[in-house]
């Protein structure tokens, strides 16, 4: 993934001529950085290169002797196999639905929390809590405690008003996974957007108010443009995390009922079906998807970052 | 800001919106509150429809979870998770502190490029390297070994830590450090007496966030550990298939295993955004 770094050009002050001891000193400055750098390359970059290589082999670990070079056959299979293609589509659907919904909800909550009211700190704490439940535990909570058709809380509350008693996970499996994820990720979006709201230029807003601008006009013409980059950042970081989601799919539906996303499929292809080559090809596809999102994400981060450096 | 409410109409609107915020906060918290209440109910009371809000309280769910009913004890998993999270967090700090120093206080050339390299590794999905790591661990005899997870969790959190600590260290005015050096202070003294006190709250927040991510991790742990090194989230996956009446037990398990994360998260609340956004948002 090193290929995607679109970092801003570093601006180190030119040192002029460098005597021989300068080289030594340059290494002395670099030395504290090297352990972390070498560690990261060894643990994250090398395995990915290995995945890339394996993805070109026809290799089932149950038949290790039948390993052979297969060019792009694995990719062809991933892209033509109905189940695998479906998991690509599921990944897209899951990611887009969860990110957009939690972003909209998070914006609404951030706007509400940006106002002063009694117990604002308590409400903030209540809202952050879902994000601080272990993901597997949160998925179990939704699966058993809320969704259970016989004694889950949702149907329990519905029975008070004489409503229907649906089997949530069987009827709408993908929606069930999405709802649980939205519940966990809305606080994340809220926190980022709240930070964005609090970094607004308050004098400018007061001035607009004095000039007779309505709340809506201030929101539309001052707040929203300012929030744009925070919205982008929330969407992109959320996408990076949710494209990779494994816990919720694994726990709530075990990848059944058409909810298997790519990470789950990769897991299943090599862990249960032992198709190493195929799993690697699917893994590489996840990486390509992530690179596309990450390129945009890095651009947003670097623009926020540059703003900060220039402000300092 | 908009709390400078003028006139009774605005104040009433402000109060209304405050109420809406409270209502939404309660709605979001309700599943957790219900889970907590259920964990203190007996299995019979936990499985009624409509729900029994006022059923008598008991610790049976917790006793069950901790193995009183003959089930597997969660203690090995809890200890494994603690080892994996604490050890990887310590490694992260040892590696990230000098790196962040070399990227902020005495920056190397092209330090932004290095910073963005760290960030880009965070965007590499786990599945990208999972299979080679599994094959490597199998051949090296490191499957089901908690130290393998320690190494992987270190790599998972190192980029976050470098970014966060870079942004904390960059806030220290260079003039203070220069002044200390002019006064004749040597580098170790500068680091312990000047840099550390200012950076300490940030370092603590970074450690808490790394701890949370390690504690939560499932995919690596699920694939690379078995009976010996299983972590708390892997232990929880044992509850995926229903086992008769077990709602109180599941609730107790989920709550106990989430407690460290809830505690760490609330302790790091102020710096949480900065960590989650990799230092991009303050």
UniProtKB/TrEMBL annotation, chain A:
<keyword id="KW-0762">Sugar transport</keyword>
<dbReference type="GO" id="GO:0055085">
    <property type="term" value="P:transmembrane transport"/>
</dbReference>
<feature type="compositionally biased region" description="Low complexity">
    <location>
        <begin position="1"/>
        <end position="14"/>
    </location>
</feature>
<dbReference type="Pfam" id="PF00528">
    <property type="entry name" value="BPD_transp_1"/>
</dbReference>
<dbReference type="InterPro" id="IPR000515">
    <property type="entry name" value="MetI-like"/>
</dbReference>
<protein>
    <submittedName>
        <fullName>Integral membrane sugar transport protein</fullName>
    </submittedName>
</protein>
<dbReference type="GO" id="GO:0005886">
    <property type="term" value="C:plasma membrane"/>
</dbReference>
<comment type="similarity">
    <text>Belongs to the binding-protein-dependent transport system permease family.</text>
</comment>
<keyword id="KW-0472">Membrane</keyword>
<dbReference type="InterPro" id="IPR035906">
    <property type="entry name" value="MetI-like_sf"/>
</dbReference>
<keyword id="KW-1133">Transmembrane helix</keyword>
<feature type="transmembrane region" description="Helical">
    <location>
        <begin position="33"/>
        <end position="57"/>
    </location>
</feature>
<feature type="region of interest" description="Disordered">
    <location>
        <begin position="1"/>
        <end position="21"/>
    </location>
</feature>
<feature type="transmembrane region" description="Helical">
    <location>
        <begin position="174"/>
        <end position="197"/>
    </location>
</feature>
<feature type="transmembrane region" description="Helical">
    <location>
        <begin position="125"/>
        <end position="145"/>
    </location>
</feature>
<feature type="domain" description="ABC transmembrane type-1">
    <location>
        <begin position="88"/>
        <end position="297"/>
    </location>
</feature>
<feature type="transmembrane region" description="Helical">
    <location>
        <begin position="88"/>
        <end position="113"/>
    </location>
</feature>
<keyword id="KW-1003">Cell membrane</keyword>
<keyword id="KW-0813">Transport</keyword>
<feature type="transmembrane region" description="Helical">
    <location>
        <begin position="277"/>
        <end position="301"/>
    </location>
</feature>
<feature type="transmembrane region" description="Helical">
    <location>
        <begin position="230"/>
        <end position="257"/>
    </location>
</feature>
<keyword id="KW-0812">Transmembrane</keyword>
UniProtKB/TrEMBL annotation, chain B:
<protein>
    <submittedName>
        <fullName>Integral membrane sugar transport protein</fullName>
    </submittedName>
</protein>
<dbReference type="Pfam" id="PF00528">
    <property type="entry name" value="BPD_transp_1"/>
</dbReference>
<dbReference type="InterPro" id="IPR050901">
    <property type="entry name" value="BP-dep_ABC_trans_perm"/>
</dbReference>
<feature type="transmembrane region" description="Helical">
    <location>
        <begin position="146"/>
        <end position="169"/>
    </location>
</feature>
<keyword id="KW-1003">Cell membrane</keyword>
<keyword id="KW-0762">Sugar transport</keyword>
<feature type="transmembrane region" description="Helical">
    <location>
        <begin position="83"/>
        <end position="103"/>
    </location>
</feature>
<comment type="similarity">
    <text>Belongs to the binding-protein-dependent transport system permease family.</text>
</comment>
<dbReference type="InterPro" id="IPR000515">
    <property type="entry name" value="MetI-like"/>
</dbReference>
<keyword id="KW-0812">Transmembrane</keyword>
<feature type="transmembrane region" description="Helical">
    <location>
        <begin position="115"/>
        <end position="134"/>
    </location>
</feature>
<feature type="transmembrane region" description="Helical">
    <location>
        <begin position="220"/>
        <end position="239"/>
    </location>
</feature>
<keyword id="KW-0813">Transport</keyword>
<feature type="domain" description="ABC transmembrane type-1">
    <location>
        <begin position="78"/>
        <end position="268"/>
    </location>
</feature>
<dbReference type="GO" id="GO:0005886">
    <property type="term" value="C:plasma membrane"/>
</dbReference>
<feature type="transmembrane region" description="Helical">
    <location>
        <begin position="246"/>
        <end position="268"/>
    </location>
</feature>
<feature type="transmembrane region" description="Helical">
    <location>
        <begin position="190"/>
        <end position="214"/>
    </location>
</feature>
<keyword id="KW-0472">Membrane</keyword>
<feature type="transmembrane region" description="Helical">
    <location>
        <begin position="17"/>
        <end position="37"/>
    </location>
</feature>
<dbReference type="GO" id="GO:0055085">
    <property type="term" value="P:transmembrane transport"/>
</dbReference>
<keyword id="KW-1133">Transmembrane helix</keyword>
<dbReference type="InterPro" id="IPR035906">
    <property type="entry name" value="MetI-like_sf"/>
</dbReference>
């Amino acid at each position: 993934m090193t290929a995607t770094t679109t970092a801003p050009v570093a601006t180190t002050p030119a040192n002029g001529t460098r005597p021989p001891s300068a080289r030594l000193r340059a290494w002395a400055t670099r030395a504290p950085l090297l352990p972390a750098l070498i560690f990261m390359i060894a643990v994250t970059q090398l395995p990915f290169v290995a995945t890339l290589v394996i993805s070109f082999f026809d290799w089932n670990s149950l038949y290790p002797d039948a390993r052979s070079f297969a060019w792009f056959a694995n990719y062809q299979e991933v892209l033509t196999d109905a189940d695998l293609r479906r998991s690509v589509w599921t990944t897209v659907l899951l990611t887009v639905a969860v990110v957009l919904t939690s972003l909209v909800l998070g914006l609404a909550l951030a706007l509400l929390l940006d106002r002063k009211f009694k117990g604002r700190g308590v409400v903030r704490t209540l809202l952050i809590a879902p994000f601080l439940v272990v993901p597997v535990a949160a998925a179990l909570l939704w699966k058993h405690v809320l969704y259970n058709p016989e004694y889950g809380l949702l149907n329990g509350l519905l029975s008070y008003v004489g409503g229907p008693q649906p089997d949530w996970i069987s009827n709408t499996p993908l929606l069930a996974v999405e709802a649980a994820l939205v519940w966990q990720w809305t606080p994340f979006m809220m926190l980022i957007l709240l930070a964005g709201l609090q970094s607004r230029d308050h004098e400018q807003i007061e001035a607009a108010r004095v000039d007779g601008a309505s709340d809506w006009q201030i929101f539309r013409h001052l707040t929203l443009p300012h929030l744009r980059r925070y919205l982008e950042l929330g969407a992109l970081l959320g996408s990076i995390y949710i494209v990779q989601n494994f816990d919720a799919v694994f726990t709530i539906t075990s990848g059944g009922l058409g909810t298997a996303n790519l990470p789950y499929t990769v897991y299943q292809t090599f862990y249960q079906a032992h198709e190493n080559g195929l799993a690697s090809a699917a893994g590489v596809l996840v990486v390509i998807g992530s690179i596309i999102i990450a390129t945009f994400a890095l651009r947003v981060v670097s623009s926020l970052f540059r703003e900060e450096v220039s402000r300092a | 800001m908009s709390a400078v409410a003028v006139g009774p109409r605005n104040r009433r609107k402000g109060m209304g919106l405050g109420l809406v915020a409270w209502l939404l906060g309660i709605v979001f918290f309700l599943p957790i509150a219900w889970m907590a209440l259920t964990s203190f109910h007996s299995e019979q009371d936990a499985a009624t429809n409509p729900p029994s809000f006022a059923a008598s309280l008991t610790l049976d769910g917790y006793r069950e979870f901790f193995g009183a009913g003959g089930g597997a004890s969660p203690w090995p998993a809890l200890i494994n998770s603690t080892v994996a999270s604490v050890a990887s967090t310590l490694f992260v700090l040892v590696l990230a502190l000098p790196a962040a120093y070399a990227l902020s206080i005495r920056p190397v050339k092209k330090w932004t490029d290095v910073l963005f390299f760290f960030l880009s590794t965070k965007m590499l999905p786990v599945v990208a390297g999972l299979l080679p790591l599994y094959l490597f661990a199998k051949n090296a005899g490191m499957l089901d070994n908690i130290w393998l997870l320690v190494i992987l969790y270190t790599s998972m959190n190192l980029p976050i830590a470098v970014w966060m600590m870079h942004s904390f260290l960059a806030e220290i005015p260079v003039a203070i450090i220069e002044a200390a050096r002019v006064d004749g202070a040597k580098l170790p003294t500068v680091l312990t007496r000047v840099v550390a006190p200012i950076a300490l709250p940030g370092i603590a927040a970074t450690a808490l966030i790394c701890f949370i991510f390690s504690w939560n991790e499932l995919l690596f742990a699920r694939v690379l550990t078995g009976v010996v090194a299983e972590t708390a989230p892997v232990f929880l996956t044992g509850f995926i298939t229903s086992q008769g009446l077990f709602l109180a037990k599941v609730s107790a398990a989920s709550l106990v295993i989430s407690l460290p994360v809830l505690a760490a998260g609330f302790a790091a609340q102020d710096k949480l955004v900065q960590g989650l956004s990799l230092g991009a948002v303050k």
